[in-house]
Amino acid sequence: MDNHNWRYPTVQKRWERAPWQQQQTPPLSLTLAELAQYNGKKGMPAYIAVDGVIYDVTMEAAWAAASHFSLRAGQDLSGPYRACHRGQGILARLKVVGQLR
Prior knowledge:
The chain contains 4 helices and 6 strands. The chain has 101 residues and is of the alpha+beta class. The protein has one domain: Flavocytochrome B2, Chain A, domain 1 (Roll). The longest helix is centred in the C-terminal third of the chain and has 8 residues, at 78-85. Residues 30-101 form the Cytochrome b5 heme-binding domain.
């Protein structure tokens, strides 16, 4: 074989978007209990909420395994965000998927 890496998936293949990421959907309106389902486990996307806005962190390197330091996806992280990242503009890079109700 010409390609010596034939046993390994390509980086492009590894980062292909899942079907739920390819679809355009209306903004979500979730309760905290519903948000908890979006914890990045069992094929679910990883969402976090900050100040009532829900963000998708599924493909963010800093959120590998749906966690960031001791924080877990599927939660309202307004307090921890304000304590660590206030004014850094980190949320502007993330996809907004809805709001908490």
